[in-house]
Amino acid sequence: MKKRRENILRSQRGFTLVELGVVLAIMAILAAIAYPSYTKIKDRAYRAEAMAMMQEIRAEAWITKLETDEWPAIQKYVKVEGNEWQFTTGTDENDENDENFYIKAERNGIIIIWQLNDKGQVTTLDAAPDGVTWPVEEGESEG
């Protein structure tokens, strides 16, 4: 009877170091698998947020274009610092007819650039053409 009680107590003492190590290793593997998916989902959410805000800027720029037959002046660029996004608008200095207007959104290394044509249609670009002039604030260097 005494042996049986000792066996029961011995079996209920807890986990061994090896068992805890195996559990930690499994948790680390699962975290390594899940993290890249999490960052992709987070980036997609950030992009969706930026595009919603860019739609508002696009609408305002298009209204200006319809009313004045010109895109908003470069001096009146939009730079909104809400939700950590920074928005900048500009025109192509090489474009004599002012047919294209650009909206750039930046946040933590994510950059989205939209090009609006003279009909207000959007093209998403990886990078703006070389001739696009972005306003430069004091203390910044253009580059």
Description of the structure:
- The protein is α+β, with helices and mostly antiparallel strands and 143 residues long.
- The chain has one domain (16-133).
- Helix content is 43%, strand content 19%.
- It is built from two helices and five strands, in the order H-H-E-E-E-E-E.
- The protein has helices spanning 2-11, 17-68, and strands at residues 86-92, 101-107, 110-116, 122-125, 132-133.
- Strands 4-3-2-1-5 form a five-stranded antiparallel β-sheet, covered by helices on one side.
- The protein is rod-shaped and about 100 Å long.
- Residues 136-143 have low confidence and may be disordered.
Helix proportion range: 40-55%
Shape assignment: rod-shaped
Mean pLDDT rating: 76
Strand content: 15-25%
Element-level helix/strand string: HHEEEEE
Q: What structural class is derived from the secondary structure elements?
A: alpha+beta
Tally of domains = 1
Q: How large is the radius of gyration?
A: 28 Å
The count of strands amounts to 5
Strand order of the largest sheet: 4-3-2-1-5
Note poorly predicted spans.
Answer: 136-143
Number of H/I helices: 2
Between the first and last Cα atoms, what is the distance in angstroms? Answer: 84 Å
For the sheet with most strands, the description reads:
5 strands, antiparallel
